[in-house]
Design a protein that fits this description.
The structure is a single chain. The protein is an all-alpha fold and 198 residues long. It is 71% helix and 0% strand. The chain has 10 helices and no strands. It has helices spanning 19-40, 42-49, 54-78, 84-102, 108-120, 123-131, 139-148, 152-167, 169-172, 177-190. Helix 1 crosses helix 8 and helix 4 (84-102) packs antiparallel against helix 10. Mean pLDDT is 89; it is low at 1-8.
Length: 198
């Protein structure tokens, strides 16, 4: 006996049917890019701004990764019921302020970049969660797209390096601000799922 099945909506199996997922992939690309950029140039930044040796600068780099890990462990405990998009929105603003401060090359920029690690802590998980909502059976392909988007971590740092060679390492951090603006927009409204036309 052949059991009749419901006709599947052909659009459900396409990326274009889930624009919030595509926007989320861009967000992952940019997030991983800025996270790696901050860490990649932190030691050299400290050499320029505070004249620290690479060994001393490496201590600050460990603080950066420690702040990132601390945020990932603490925020779910401290804010267990907070809305995912609201936390992402506030933390994207916080990270952008830190990077903006670092761009001026003041001594406080070192700690600002360390603090950026804390604000980066929840971004991966929150962007992932917002991007995969309501995908149904398409969730495996959606997850694959988001994982591939981490290539941003290999693309943005060389661009910042080229910029640093021309304008200096501290101001090169301002290159990351448009990426944070996108993350702020994604958290505010870019993650929203528009109702399908009937």
């Amino acid at each position: 006996e052949v059991v009749p099945t419901r006709a599947a909506d052909p659009s459900v199996g396409t990326y274009r049917a889930h624009p919030h997922l595509l926007r989320g992939a861009v967000a992952i690309f940019l997030y991983v890019g800025v996270e790696v950029c901050v860490a990649t140039f932190l030691i050299l930044y400290l050499g320029d701004v505070r004249e620290l040796s690479r060994a001393d600068g490496a201590v600050y780099l460990s603080y950066y990764w420690g702040a990132l890990m601390a945020g990932r462990l603490l925020i779910p405990l401290v804010l267990p019921k907070a809305h995912t998009h609201k936390v992402l929105f506030l933390f994207a603003i916080g990270a952008s302020v830190c990077v903006a401060i670092a761009g001026f090359g003041a001594a406080a920029g070192a700690w600002a970049l360390v603090a950026a690690g804390f604000f980066h802590s929840i971004m991966w998980g929150n962007i992932f969660a917002l991007s995969l909502r309501d995908l149904g059976s398409f969730i495996s392909k959606g997850s694959g797209l988001l994982v591939m988007a981490i290539v941003g971590g290999a693309i943005l740092p060389p661009i910042q390096g080229l910029l640093a060679d021309s304008v200096g390492r501290p101001p090169s951090y301002w290159m990351l601000l448009p990426a944070y603006l996108y993350l702020i927009w994604f958290a505010h409204s870019g993650h929203l799922i528009k109702p399908k036309a009937s």
